[in-house]
Structures
1.
Amino acid sequence: AGSLLGLSLHGGVSYPVGKVEELRLYPMNFIEFLDAMDKPQLVNILKAGNWSVINLLESEFISLLRQYYYVGGMPAAVLAHIKQKGLQEVRSIQKQIIQDYRRDFSKHAPAQEVPRIDMVWQSILGQLSKENKKFVYGVLKKGGRAKEFELAIQWLVDAGLVYKITKVTKPELPLKFYEDLSAFKLYLCDCGLMGAMADTAAKDVLLGDNVFTEYKGAFTEQYVLQQLLASGITHIYYYSSDTSRMEMDFLVQREGALLPIEVKGGTSIKATSLHNYLKEHPDISAIRYSMLPYRQQENISNMPLYGVFLRT
């Protein structure tokens, strides 16, 4: 067993078919974080989906959600937090994990790809801070092209260190048919590690809102993506159109239906493009995640961010 077992078997070693059972593990999701924090009643209330009770506990859920944004889901960081070792110790653990990852680049990756892998890794925050968040090779180096970096990106994806979300040219089913493999976004594997790489201060995450607006909502999108992946949703896309200026943060295909997902980091939920799309497609329902409590608005379910795993 090992976090990079699959990668280590790529180098000319035959795979032991029938003798290995693969389990894909993700950082702890928010529900697992609440369990670790010894909050079984809050977990049960969330799972029951009783919104009248959930809304009464809104401030407590938001406080815990902000803690999760800072701590993330890496087990060592969560353990330090629940043992009250202090947020500085949590951040120290996160930075050590990041350094360990970078050492793994040179240990496991092909030697000629290591510099490119590091360039991609170091660029992710900057890429996500852009308005459309689309990965641009030219950010890595002047005149950068896909053929130079595609192997480096794939190595990071295979290692489970980044998540690659591909664009679709149309928000229609089946989504796989409309993949645009040349356009994608890269997210880190954990929101806590993202905060450590950005060196965000604890008070900004736990008390302020600036950190969620300054980075164009990247922290919140990172969080939502983690929860979706941990819940078993693996084929996740996004959509944007230069002509209609329509954007959808995430698109998933569930039980033969298209589900647009919009992510808002705060309490402002204006979304002209989503409303226009749903007016043209009244048979489609969407989910919007924000810091607001639950309410149903025609064919949009407005869900609080601490309930991402519900009704998806």
Note: The CA atoms of residues 66 and 205 lie 6 Å apart.
2.
Amino acid sequence: MPLSRTPRTVAAMIALLLAGGITPTAASAETPAPNWSGLDARFYSGPIAAPGQVISAVPLDRGLTVQGAGDAFRLLYSTINQHDAASVSTAAVFLPPSPPPDGGFPVIAWAHGTVGLGDDCTPSALPRSQRDNIYLSRWLSAGFAVVASDYVGLGTPGTMSYLNGVATAHAVVDSVVAAHAMGLPLAPKWAVVGQSQGGGAAIASARWASEFSAGRGLDYRGVVATGTPANIDELVSKAGPDLAIPELGPIANAYTAYILAAFREARPDLPIDGVLSPAGRDAAAAAQEMCVDQLSTQLESQNIDQFFTRPLNSIPGLRDALADYMGTPTSGFDRPVFLGVGLDDHDVPPTSTLTFYEQLVANNQQVELRIYPDADHDGTVLASLPDSMPFIRNVFTS
């Protein structure tokens, strides 16, 4: 289903896709103070071993656990960041309340949606949203352990590289490797599941799961991605002051600011500030600290086109740089892919997932698409469970 390339449609798609992951998963207008469960890694400066090593692990504060979980932990582990350098990330690990089966619990790696870039937005240090609580609890009650990475830069040194596929894949895969080194009853088989920003992260993790975990004794089986913002690098590259961007809610401004802040940090060799207006530079600076609702309120009186003095693609090499940073892989998947899309999704347009599905089919990838006509962005997560859970059970036994 090809995308229309008229300026007005592209502008609208940019606006909507930039808001990929629009529904907050751990942040609110008054984000509570983080609870580090006794493991505050914001300023960690100790040694970093090879990726996937446990640096420290503590019991997760019971106020931060998922309903119906058994033992839960907060984990600090080694990984690789967006600059291809040794780094650290944190994760929450939830075990089912039941005794483990022979061979241990199979594992679901949960890739979270957008919360912000600042340490105060760290998912494992905040209560889960009602939706995520219900969703993750369903996987636990089905007998799966859940490993939920925060991604590098949330509660750890550095900047969370928002929508950066490879960096996020390292964090997700290495969280699973590290969880298996904790001495917990975990089986080698694992899959990755994500929604919105996390849907993109899940797809990237799936593409490199086997490669990044090679030699670690794990058995990657497949991926579930819902509300997936695919191919948005092509649209972001068209951002600038002259597009006829329609009137938007403030959330789109916030997500644009997150992309600008994270992309600028990842690619300091590109003169991104040179195409930003003072308002754009201020928005990117605020994005480095503010969680999603707070930033949305901060920017509610502005429009995306006010962030630019020149088109982003006036920067030489910009298009290729964006593709490297946030491009969606469309081939190279060695395990099945499940895509769920709600046709009432006004945060990430359904065409994003539908076009991505067609690309995977054209590249002979093993992919299953499920469409939920009445589901919006948030609702697709739970609506997909009757289909996605059997899909996961099947790939674990095939």
Note: The chain has twelve helices and nine strands.
3.
Amino acid sequence: VSLYDAHGVLFSQWVARGGAKLIVVNPRRDPTADYALLHGGLFLQIKVGTDTALHSAIARIILENGWQDRDFIEQYTASSSDLASNSNPKWRQSLYSMSFDAYRDLILSDPDSEPAVAAEICGIAVSEIYAAAAMMAKPDATGMHPKTSMMLEKGNYWSHNYPNTASFGALGLLVGAGN
């Protein structure tokens, strides 16, 4: 079920009325993908279960170009020293915590995050991955980042639940989607 079909009020009152450009990631083309293509957005028809590779490749392009929302990251994410001094039990930190620097190093060292590799994994054109990264994060001539909101539907976490959800959330932090 597409955003258009399942969330008609949200779609008509917020997405369409606000002129949002959508990046629709879905193994099948649906009415929301058609809307995105007709209104300056993208449709990335990935193979089922390859969301994490796509998220990581988009993140890599953003990091390599310095398009990350540094102010948002500084204000809303934990540093290595914050994590070390946190009063939460250490096992939670070791399992679920990562500083921005550690995340950046992880993405930039992961061979599967190379856009050409991820494009092969996902079954889409590498140019589509670059276009999505630019649409989400490339600052304009004045240095302003695009306003990016991120939404997911159940398909993102029906396959490879944790990696897909974590990579989606990390990408949102990278582009300041909560700002």
Note: The chain has twelve helices and two strands.
4.
Amino acid sequence: MNRRTFLSQSAITPLALSSSAVLAGAAQGGSQQYHLRYAPRIGWLELPLTRQIELYAQNGFRAFEYNGLPNHSDQEIGELRKKMDQLNMAMGVFVVNRGGWKPVAMPDKGGHKRFLEDVRRGVEIHKIVGNECATVTSGLTVPHLTFAQQTANCVEVLKRAAELVEKTKMVLVLEPLNHKVDHAGYFVVYSEHAAEIIGSVNHPNVRILFDMYHQQISEGNLINHIHQYWDWIGYFQIGDVPGRKEPYTGEVNWQNVFKAIHEKGYKGILGMEHGLSVPGEAGVKKCFDAYRKADSWS
């Protein structure tokens, strides 16, 4: 999404009107009440950012997430915050660090200076938009260091990052990613390893991002792992396997998973960080129908 699109809030296009009618009607004017705080991601529709969150609010959602927010100016982020306040919408994550897919993020100290610069920028953004969490990624394994050295380097830099965010309401969430399908060479893959790092950091503003798409591929057994590492989890993301699309396009029993998270008393946001099995507004409607089904336990 470019800045022209972001700023064209007043130019409601035919697509916007169509989407508003179809999607709001599908959710009966946004009357849906969900057990959990599901957050659609920005980017499913080619509409101004503020128009997208209006549609999400009309369909009963009370939060959204947007990985690309740091690409916008402070003025644009401020405009987004105004719309959030008007709609009583919360924001989940954006991605903090630029080097998250490269060797020089956390495992190698050579990437720490830039990582901490990104965290400082993340704090500035948080002060404007008031997001609840922000994603940090470990980066790739570096061959010249042992696994233990790389783990220690991750702990060290996250402790320094914790000092930068501890006076805010923003929680940094470290995301394990799968290396079988999407992110070959990524360092933090398993829940156990993430919990080791976060437990060593031991700070309330630094937690795990449990992305259920990645963890289903890497280790499966989602509900048991959620229970096992509950104390260190700060945020969830969703995506079915295979394909990383909306619920009921793959193998996961989402009703059982969401019920287990709800029964644990989770009050945070679950980011809908996945694609759509059908493009455009028809796909968004299909996606929202899937979430109503997944959230329909008694």
Note: Residues 45 and 280 are 6 Å apart (CA to CA).
